[in-house]
Amino acid sequence: MQLIDFVKTNELLAVLTGQLSTSLNRHLNRKFRAAELELTTDQWLVLMCLWNRDGQTQQSLSDQTSKDKTSITRLLDTLSKHSLIERHSDPTDRRINKIHLTNKGREMEDLAMQIVKESFEKAVSGISSKELLSAKEVIVKLLNNII
After folding, report:
1. One pLDDT digit (tens) per residue for the chain, 147 residues
2. Nearest by Cα to 119 from 46, 27, 30
3. What is the C-alpha separation between 110 and 108, in angstroms, rounded?
4. pLDDT value, residue 9
5. Residue 56 CA: distances (Å) to CA of 29, 46, 75, 112
6. Considering the domain boundaries, does residue 54 fall inside one?
7. Which of 25, 98, 99, 141, CA to CA, is 20 to 30 A from 6?
8. CA–CA gap between residue 26 and residue 24 (Å, rounded)
9. Beta-bridge partners for 97
10. Distance between CA 122 and CA 24 in Å, rounded?
11. Alpha carbon distance 135, 141 (integer Å)
12. What is the CATH number of the domain that holds 113?
């Protein structure tokens, strides 16, 4: 492959992955609003981490979501303002906050995850499992190359 073709392919890949991410976020945000969930995709991502394991540290959530400290703090502030999470000081180290779901935060899991499931099923319709696995492997390799 000539260098110019390689550059064009990479530019196209960057554009397509950016468009995919943006389109999926917009789609999910519309679906959340239509279901009257006051939730963005970034907030959902944090909540999903907590639905998987409640009581995590802010740093752990930052690592899992690839959000910097400022962004994760802002997201947690918003989730707290909407009474979806609470911060509790770690009894052994008061510098560490543990993030816990509220009842309201737990109750929205089923509806939010149903919306996400339906959206992903729509996104992957007509794509074979083999194609999805190949795409995932390529994306993981790309990420590993730049991390």
Report:
1. 555 555 566 666 777 888 888 999 999 999 999 999 989 999 999 999 999 999 999 999 999 999 999 999 999 999 999 999 999 988 888 888 899 999 999 999 999 999 999 999 999 999 999 999 998 898 888 888 887
2. 27
3. 6
4. 61
5. 25, 10, 15, 20
6. yes
7. 25
8. 5
9. 89
10. 11
11. 10
12. 1.10.10.10
Place of tokens 């917009």: 26
The string of DSSP codes covering 78-125 is: HHHHTTSEEEEEETTEEEEEEEEE-HHHHHTHHHHHHHHHHHHHHHTT
- Rounded Cα–Cα distance for residues 86 and 105 (Å): 10
Q: How many domains does the chain have?
A: 1
SS3 57: strand
Residues listed for the chain: 147
In the block, which residue shows the tokens 């279901």? 35
Range of the domain at 89: 3-123
